[in-house]
From TrEMBL:
Annotated InterPro entries: CISD1/2, FeS-contain_CDGSH-typ, MitoNEET_CISD
GO molecular function: 2 iron, 2 sulfur cluster binding; metal ion binding
GO CC, alphabetical: mitochondrial outer membrane
Lineage: Eukaryota, Sar, Rhizaria, Cercozoa, Chlorarachniophyceae
Source organism of this protein record: Lotharella oceanica
Residues annotated as transmembrane: 20-42
Superkingdom: Eukaryota
Residue ranges annotated for the Iron-binding zinc finger CDGSH type domain, each copy included: 94-134
Official protein name in the record: Iron-binding zinc finger CDGSH type domain-containing protein
Amino acid sequence: LFIIENIAYLLRGADWHPTLLTTMKLIVVIATLCLAIAVFSFGRESNLQSAAAISRTRTHSVAPRFQIHRQANRLRMLSGFAEKERINTEVDLESPKVVTMEDLGKGEKKVFCRCWKSGTFPLCDGTHAKWNKETGDNVGPLIVSGPKEE
């Protein structure tokens, strides 16, 4: 994994010949697949750590798949080859920029969505928990408090 991460780091900042760059991208993809197969087949952790990781999941088959997904995403991000996707896929898509302004009264508190998945956007409805579980992300809400009452 260390070697793969270093290759990915080198690819990001260098001015490579297109053919060599394509070859290096292919190497990163193959290395990612090899890592995924190794994690799925053998696991990276000791048996005790694997048992602990599996016990935190709902089924035994979830832990290896989650680890593979997380490692593959990490390598794509490090290499700079991750596809650029829209973060916001649901809210006010025709607007050039989504801006929300709120005035909070004394003692008032609001919880705002940062995952763009909430059905009550701009307020958080907890949808980020499902998103985090599916993707391995760690997004959470923004909690804002108004001035304290005296």
